[in-house]
């Protein structure tokens, strides 16, 4: 069984919740202070041993490509100004030994369709999928945990978190089977956005997955589901019903950066975790709270 070295980043969605910011720019380039959310996902993948980054891009293709491409002119300018630290930081956005491939999703026909567009670049290999708008923060991140789970038992694995039971109608919810001694949960199905009284659990699947190439065959056979889109969740559900899917608990904290409030929360928490800003930012927050109390 071979090690997972490929990661797929679907970045071709419309990002309508962030208009007008996403009119000319993909939402995956929205920054948390100074780093685009897709770069956090790339760093998480590289830390898990991924060496081939496959971006599924859409109409705003250029900006994501430019971000991960070398910019020799900028590097030379920074060097000329003696800003070697900044030059090294820009140069190492994609570390040595890691390569990027860009494939195109001609139309945003759904996440399942975006993953299918990566099939020629993935080939006959297991791979991880990371949705950049799910930002993960913590000492252990889910991609590493997923790769490890796959190494123990090669199969499709989802990263899941418990959600408030009253919120099940917002998420893809697991129908869980038994949990083994390693914490691997067998998955019997996944139900999109069930009402509270119909939810089989409060375990929700978020934007990190390991897939075997079998997912492509299932996606090819799918008809458009909710919203006329090819839904990744429908393909996972089919595999789960055939007993081919497991899940592990996300070891980190997740921020939904596809949503404005989730994005704002991520910025606040990242700023509070940053030694450079923490104290000043706390003072600012205290000051604002005091002002609103009057
Ligand atoms: P979302 O459904 O959250 O993204 O997709 P969206 O459609 O861009 O956002 P809104 O709802 O209009 O604001 C989750 C991920 O899947 C990608 C998105 O780029 C995002 O990373 N995606 C979605 C695609 O690559 N292609 C698609 O057709 C749909």
Automatic annotation (TrEMBL):
SUPFAM superfamilies: Nucleotide-diphospho-sugar transferases. Its EC number is 2.7.7.9. Pfam families: NTP_transferase. Keywords: Nucleotidyltransferase, Transferase. InterPro entries: GalU_uridylyltTrfase_bac/arc, NTP_transferase_dom, Nucleotide-diphossugar_trans. The keyword Nucleotidyltransferase applies. It comes from the Bacteria. One of its GO terms (molecular function) is UTP:glucose-1-phosphate uridylyltransferase activity. Residues 11-267 form the Nucleotidyl transferase domain. It catalyses: alpha-D-glucose 1-phosphate + UTP + H(+) = UDP-alpha-D-glucose + diphosphate. It is an enzyme of class 2 (transferase). Belongs to the UDPGP type 2 family. This is UTP--glucose-1-phosphate uridylyltransferase. It comes from Roseinatronobacter domitianus. The gene is galU.
């Amino acid at each position: 069984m071979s090690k997972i070295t490929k990661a797929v980043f679907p970045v071709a969605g419309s990002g309508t919740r962030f208009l007008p910011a996403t009119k000319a720019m993909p939402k995956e380039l929205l920054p948390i202070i100074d780093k685009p959310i897709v770069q956090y996902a790339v760093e998480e993948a590289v830390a898990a041993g991924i060496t081939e980054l496959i971006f599924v891009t859409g109409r705003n293709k250029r900006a994501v490509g430019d971000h991960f491409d070398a910019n020799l002119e900028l590097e030379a300018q920074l060097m000329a100004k003696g800003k070697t630290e900044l030059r090294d930081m820009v140069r190492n956005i994609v570390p040595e030994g890691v390569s990027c491939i860009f494939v195109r999703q001609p139309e945003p026909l759904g996440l399942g369709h975006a993953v299918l567009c990566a099939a020629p670049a993935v080939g006959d290999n297991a791979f991880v999928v990371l949705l950049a708008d799910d930002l993960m923060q913590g000492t252990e991140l889910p991609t590493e945990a997923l790769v490890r789970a796959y190494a123990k038992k090669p199969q499709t694995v989802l990263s899941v978190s418990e959600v408030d039971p009253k919120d099940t109608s917002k998420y893809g919810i697991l129908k869980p089977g038994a949990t083994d001694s390693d914490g691997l949960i067998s998955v019997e199905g996944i139900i999109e956005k069930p009402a509270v009284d119909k939810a089989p659990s409060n375990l929700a699947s978020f934007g990190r997955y390991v897939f075997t190439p079998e997912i492509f065959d299932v996606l090819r056979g799918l008809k458009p589901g909710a919203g006329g889109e090819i839904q990744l969740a429908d393909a996972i559900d089919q595999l789960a019903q055939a007993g081919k899917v497991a899940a592990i608990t996300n070891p980190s904290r997740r921020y939904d950066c596809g949503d404005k409030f989730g994005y704002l929360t991520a910025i606040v928490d990242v700023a509070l975790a940053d030694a450079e800003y923490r104290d000043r930012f706390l003072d600012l927050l205290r000051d604002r709270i005091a002002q609103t109390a009057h």
